[in-house]
Amino acid sequence: MLPVNKMKKRSLRSLVFTFFFLVFSQVTLATPGCRFGANIYYSMTIDADGSERYDSKFYKQVDGSIDCTANANKTIQYVLLSQVTTRASSIVCRTPFGGGGAFLRGVAINFTTVYQCSLDDYIWVMVIAVGGIAFVMLRKYQLA
Prior knowledge:
2 helices; elongated; 9 strands
């Protein structure tokens, strides 16, 4: 059993950590995009008439069936269909089509999650690291 002073210090540390976590954490907002076909364009500029114009060089593929298996293309970032929501219909977004500055009207959307499959290759390293830190911390507090 820990002495009362150590328990108070731990409680105070927990409260301080929780306070800073709540104050300095931020909600992740959806990223605006313009969907045309199987691609979401996300590099936006606003035209003089207020419409959103998206660059053809910056896009992500939309696919709801990617499971990061060996068959998946690990060099492309995918957006799951379930993470795509349509924005207000009054927003006009234009996506590139061909050369010469031609654009087509796309669907203004928000997307919140991008999956890059290569992260799965390193999860075992993170599990071992967190496990090692937890083991050391438990031993340290058990001996105290």
